[in-house]
Structures
1.
Amino acid sequence: LEANFCFCEYCAGEFRNWLKLKYGSLELINQTYGNVVWSGEYSSWEQITPPFGTNPHAWLNPSMMLDFNRYASDNMIKFVKMQSEIIGKNCRDIQITTNTWFCQNMPDFYNTFEELDFVSYDNYPVTKIPEDKEELYSHAFHLDLMRGIKQKSFWIMEQLSGGLGCWMPMLHAPRPNMIKGYSLQAFAHGADTVVHFRWRTAATGAEMHWHGLIDQSNVPGRRLYEFEDLCKTAEKLGMISGTKIKSEVAILYSSDQEYAFKIQPQTESMYYFEQLKLFHDAFTKFGMNIDIINWSANLDNYKVVVAPTIYVTDSLVTKNLYEYVKNGGTLILTNRSGVKNEYNNYSMEMLPTVFAELIGAKVTQYDPIGNSEQKIKMADGSQFICTQWCDILETTTANVLASYADSFYQGNPAIIQNKYGDGTTYYVGTVGKKALYYDLIQRVLNECNLEYFSELPYGVEITTRESERDKYYFVFNNSDNACEVTLEKNMKDVLSGDLTNELKLQPYDMRILQTQ
Ligand SMILES: [Zn+2]
């Protein structure tokens, strides 16, 4: 389901009702939105319309636009609720869900599934691994976000079964082992059920080129045989059922940031999800389990929390983050934090406003450099490329970890670390390439004394699921190249029963191991 925008009279009326409930009066809307700018004050409710037209959204009032996105999400959720109430009244002892995916207009996932029994997701990982090694492609990110919605296991309602296409040009056919490997990757990240879509490629209708396990000819082929092999493997994985994924690391997600970044792009090539993915990729490189959770979630169980670009703030979330660090947590904040209040307006304070005390510094200037590249220098002399955004920091209580090596702010702090209460906050004032995050996250993991894998080959992902008694390691080669992984100690391969610490993995191979 998508929270698509609609501009019809009915939806305009619903939007006005939503605003009436939230603000009560036009005066308060005018004041909150700052409608005096460009003489935009409303003098009657009928003047409020959805943001139709072809002008860039950034030309429209950002406060109104954020509210419209929230309204579109609420409206979709109302529809889900109406449907599930009908089903609930007419059917007994059933579980109710709906499927979601990463689409253009994403609803708030947490509210969408609040009253549903479990999350289900349409899982279509890439069928061609990008040649650019900086590109972030792993669906581990999507799967961790889906598991984090209700913080429990979930379903894949549609799983990759063949080449994709229908409303868009057709994409690459899945490489050998992808049908099987990607399904096992979903299990590794908390899916308890994986349903392939579809059995047979449709011979008619809108989804004709969305390939199934069998082509439209109805003749069994490579993809079906691979699926058969997957089913034989899945049959032997009963011991995984009921096991849980325990993570020491969490990344916070908020639909408000996603909306606000789309409404007002910050700089060329800067996207909210990319910020989250860069951190997720770094923890993945070190074989860590990662929960991606609601920005307002309870953080007590996490050793490290990353809150990328808390651009639109929320007073309860801010308080929660201060408490978390004060009580000994390690928090990573980034550029574009504390920029807006909950109405998507600036507050007249120096950045990062509400987070200044937590990071022990102020942002005195910033430089949105877009696709340009610059360098930063770490305290040990190593250099990394940075891009997109450069916060120029002035520390109050923080230590400097990296400074800019270029431009008029050469020598100014770019990455800092601050002690607050019993905990630590890191602030990354810029955006790096993957290497910067590997360096930074390894430093954080060491300082927090967390166990990790330091030598995993490119594309290899290790996650764990555990019961009270056993712990299972899922080792997945999410790349086009065969590789070898050496483990520190022998483990038992749950499928073959062999004891081993040397794994030879073909592309998209999954090995499931059990500690002895
Ligand atoms: Zn409508």
2.
Amino acid sequence: LIGTRSLTTEIPGIDKLEAEAKDNIRQGIKAYDALQKIRAAKPATSGETSQDVATTEARSSFEDIGHQLGYALLLKRYVNDPRQATEEQIAQAARDTIPHVPTLFWSFRIMVGLGMFFILLTTVFFWLSARRQLDRYPLLLRVAVFAIPLPWVAIELGWVVAEFGRQPWIIEGVLPTAAAVSNLGAGTVLLTILGFAALYTVLIVIEMTLMIKAIRKGPDPDEKPEAKLISENLVPAAE
Ligand code: HEM
């Protein structure tokens, strides 16, 4: 249901996906070859030559299988010209299309488990709060406090599911990550990370200072929320 929005579509197993990737890589190599031929073709001069015929063939071949080109680019990690790839390199590139299974298995399940836990926790608290019984279960209040950072954990794991799960692609079947890395130097990237770290450190210090201040101050003992609502005519006063 999650993968295909359908209850009947077959979900291929990993071995099958790997075999399909191998076929796609072979087609991709042909597309790469056609593209190189088109690129190498000289601008047309008068009269049709044998080279024109070859280019026309390459063009029609590229129109058929050009969408598989991305698979040939997967080989670029191992060989400069995908047409020179050995059988072993093709097999390796096909294996690369399967991300590390345990990482995905667990990050997805922990994220979903946390999601279910949040639904349960919210339901319980809604129920107790509606019946004004929140203060009867101090253990639950403790659980609630310890649950505060968990959505963050779920978000990070969701991000792992989405980003790690689509490797080795930036755009699935079209553009491999290895072909899309930017050419920024390590120094530039380091500088950006340090900038972010500094900015967010300042923000967390401000946030924490404000929070601690508010907690130290504590609630105003004279302030009764219900009295305020009544005074603002938002709820009728009790008889
Ligand atoms: C309740 C059960 C949940 C289910 C069934 C679920 C399902 C999914 C799925 C299928 C994806 C992958 C989407 C994709 O890229 O194709 C995903 C990604 C993600 N999930 Fe969950 N999730 C659940 C709970 C949560 C919770 C509780 C959080 C955070 C509080 C969360 C945060 C995320 C994030 C941040 C992503 C990455 C989105 C992106 O970058 O595209 N998920 N989730």
